[in-house]
Amino acid sequence: MNALSIKGLTKTYRGGFEALKGIDLTVKAGDFYALLGPNGAGKSTTIGIISSLVNKTQGQVEVFGFNIDTHLVQAKQHIGLVPQEFNFNQFETVLQVVMNQAGYYGVPRKLALERAQKYLTELDLWHKKDARSRELSGGMKRRLMIARALMHQPKLLILDEPTAGVDIELRRSMWTFLESLNEQGVTIILTTHYLEEAESLCRNIGIIDNGVIVQDTSMKALLSQLNVETFVLDITPVAQDVCLEGFDSRLIDDHTLEVDVEQGHELNTLFSQLTNHGISVLSMRNKANRLEELFLRLVNQTA
Amino acid sequence: MSANFIALKSLLTKEVNRFTRIWLQTLVPPAITMSLYFVIFGTLIGERIGLMSGFSYMEFIVPGLIMMSVITNSYSNVASSFFSSKFQRNVEELLVAPVPTWIIIAGYVGGGVARGLLVGCIVTLVSLFFVQLNIANIGVLIISVLFTSILFSLGGLINAILAKTYDDISIIPNFVLTPLTYLGGVFYSLSLLPEFWQGVSQVNPIVYMINTFRYGFLGVTDIPLVYSFSIIFIFVAALYSLAHWMISRGIGLRS
Predict the structure, then answer these.
(1) B10, A99: Cβ pair inside 8 Å?
(2) What is the pLDDT at residue A64?
(3) Is B152 left (phi over 0), alpha (psi -120 to 50) or beta?
(4) Is residue A209 helix, strand or coil?
(5) Which of A127, A182, A197, B67 is the most exposed place for a label (fewest CB within 10 A)?
(6) What ipTM does this complex have?
(7) pTM score, whole prediction
(8) CB burial class (10 A; 0-12, 13-18, 19+) of residue A170?
């Protein structure tokens, strides 16, 4: 069963800007799917169309088999949306924000209160339930938006940059929360600019650029396309650049060496050559996140 | 309880909470303004005017002033609430939810009617300090004030849907609503006007509402009731249809 099926989706805004140029996308039920792309690529427009905030120009969107043109109410019941910008009423309390949302989905008050307690507790906001939402910190506001989106227990949760501006500790706790939701069967579509977040959470990935899907594959398959990885080695000081057979390398300073390692080349060979040159490796790390490198490569290709 | 009923209740509660939370801005000013009208026009100037349509000037203007506050508050409540929701983007909470358009309209209009009628009651209570009110026809009174409030709440909603800035929601009340209300027979009987201006007044919809409401209190009207009610109902139906069409199409709401 597909949680989301998009066919030939186009969007041309008034003024002629073509935000989506006929995209096709399928997200299977239970998936944790990353939708990535540079700013202005069409991610938010796609999400806006799925969640009825943007009118599409052409194409078909189905949510759990319900076409948004013919069965919009049923499709909406399955979607929970966490938008990019804070869009709750800043003058309402945390509890009012989530209770109102539950009401709009027809959740009876008693049940809504139970869910509010559950989700606000899980997201560490229950103690703030009577605080005005404008008084919350940025991280708390992000979590409030997630709690609000879960009040009707949607089968498809769409998160548009949910961890933007959130500190690393909180981001990790949000990852854990989202992973547990996904384990419970909630399909999650995530857009983010933190690519390590997508790499660590998502099983499948779509990359959109200039209104076109340039990749729609599994995370594993995508990462396997990366045929060169750049490592940064902290080494014992050397006076001049070293020549390593079979590897491209650059001496950044007297104790930092960058080495490009092609797929299939063994790191042991690299270390042996460094040892032969009398160089000891103190530590090493990837120069960039693997997904980040691929992402930049794909996006630059289409530019 | 059906999902639609729960959604309507949630929206309505939210709207009523909104204007009661800021009661100092929403409920007190009309009471003060109308008290000044009662003192200045009713007591000070009114005593020199004498009878109007067989009633003291104070008795004559009270229904019009109540209706004026109902109209202004119903309109501005929905216009400011819906536009704020649009501006802060929390209207998206409603747009993503499976809430039918008629519930969105009913929720916001219900909020406007609640404030309009509450202010109407407050102004009525204030007027009792100045004049003894008699009710000639309670049915006409309730139907006219209720539907007038619905009509102007719908007007406020349409204004807010189309508005792009806060200025846009004050243009209609300042430049259209206020002149029409003042020229709608709040302070005078239409029969006092020359024939030409009586004819011109017939195109002012507020004339019908004030006359009908005044009939509810005093039992006198310048215009036949059937005619007035027909006009009110036609306007309500037309504005509701327009608001429904606009929200369904996402005009001013979806890009």
Answers:
(1) yes
(2) 96
(3) alpha
(4) strand
(5) A127
(6) 0.87
(7) 0.86
(8) middle
Task: Quick: pLDDT tens for A86-102.
Answer: 999 999 999 999 999 99
Q: Rounded CA gap, A188 and A179, in Å?
A: 9
Helices (H), A151-233: 168-183, 195-201, 219-224
Listed as ranges, residues in chain A with pLDDT below 50 are: none
Query: What would the pLDDT profile of A159-189 be if each residue is shown by its tens digit?
Result: 998 888 788 888 888 999 999 999 999 999 9
Question: Least CB-CB distance to A73: which of B93, B94, B98?
Answer: B98
Residue B195 to residue B64: CA distance in whole angstroms = 22
In this predicted structure, what is the pLDDT of residue B40?
Answer: 87
pLDDT score at A303: 57
Q: What is the spatial distance between Cα A98 and Cα B23, in angstroms, rounded to a whole number?
A: 24
Burial classification of residue A75, based on how many CB atoms lie within 10 Å of its CB (0-12 exposed, 13-18 middle, 19 or more buried): buried
- Residue whose tokens read 């910190």: A137
Query: Phi/psi of residue B34, each to 5°?
Result: -70, -30
Residues ≥6 apart with Cβ < 8 Å to B91: B82, B85, B253
- A240 to chain B, closest Cα gap in Å: 59
CA distance A269 to A20: 47
User: What is the C-alpha to C-alpha distance for residues A71 and A3, in angstroms, rounded to an integer?
Assistant: 15
Q: What is the mean pLDDT, run by run of 10 residues, along chain B of 255 residues?
A: 91 95 92 89 80 86 93 96 94 95 97 97 93 91 96 97 92 89 85 84 89 92 89 96 96 89
Nearest Cα to Cα of residue B78 among B5, B181, B164, B149: B149
B95 shares contact with chain A (CB less than 8 Å): yes
Give the bridge partners for B212, in sequence order.
Answer: none
